Amino acid sequence: MNSVRNVLAIADKELRSYFASPIGYIIIGLFALLFGWFFYVYLTFFVQRSTGMAGMGGGATNINQDMIRYVLMNSAVIILFVMPMITMRTYAEEKRSGTIELLLTSPLTDVQIILGKFFGAMGLYAAMLLVTLLYMGILFIYGNPEWRPIASGYLGLLLMGGCFISLGLLISSLTKNQIVAGVLTFAVFLMLWVINWIGDQSGPTTRVIVNYLSIVDHFDDFARGIIDTKHLVYYLSFITFGLFLTAKSVDSERWRG
């Protein structure tokens, strides 16, 4: 119980620190604005397409597959740019201000510290996603979308964000400079995003391996409303491995201290 209480205390401290300065509000506002733009663009396109098909006597359109899916896919692109802003300060700021020594000499274990910072960042990320549910509420008021594909899409976004946060924590623990941490985090995120482009130019075996490593390829099924065990295993394994490497990095910092 003490371990859980310690993790929650650190998570609460981290979450409060985001809103102690404008950064938390800026990140949420920026994400909501960009999400709203994609929502408006794809909704307009969907309405025009539906009207055109109805006028020509075409088949029915599906709002989940023809509109919401693409909104969620594009929101994943926004996360690629926004997430480094969340993770770059987690350890780098502690090192810059000198509070890392106090943290490492406290009665808290490395695992408790890491999990607390991870859940604190996840709390801000979850708040970002919660704000976008207002847009989805509009569809339920004026339309009739299926809720299950939307739920699976948001689950995929949550898991993908967890991967980015675990990796961002690792990179932030390696430097004292927030800007350096942010740039490196974005570069690594981008590499994981476009790695499947390499597979397109490779042989069948390499293509399978590279596509499996691509973080965005695993999200596509979630956006379609499909929850596949292999995607869950990938994301959860990614998060665990990222936190494990962060623990090793923090442990080396403790020994150096």
Key attributes of the depicted protein:
257 residues, mainly alpha, 84% helix, globular
The helix/strand series, from N terminus to C terminus, equals HHHHHHHHHHH
Q: What structural class do the secondary elements suggest?
A: mainly alpha
- Uncertain runs: none
Shape: globular
Q: What's the number of extended β-strand segments?
A: 0
Question: What is the arithmetic mean of pLDDT?
Answer: 84
Structural write-up:
It is built from eleven helices and no strands. It has 257 residues and is mostly helical. The chain has helices at residues 2-20, 23-55, 63-87, 92-97, 99-104, 110-142, 147-172, 178-200, 204-213, 217-224, 229-256. It has one domain (2-256). The mean pLDDT is 84.
Strands, helices and their partners?
Elements: H1 2-20, H2 23-55, H3 63-87, H4 92-97, H5 99-104, H6 110-142, H7 147-172, H8 178-200, H9 204-213, H10 217-224, H11 229-256
Helix pairs in contact: 1-6, 2-3, 2-6, 3-7, 3-8, 3-10, 6-7, 6-11, 7-8, 7-10, 7-11, 8-9
Summary?
The chain has 257 residues and is mainly α.
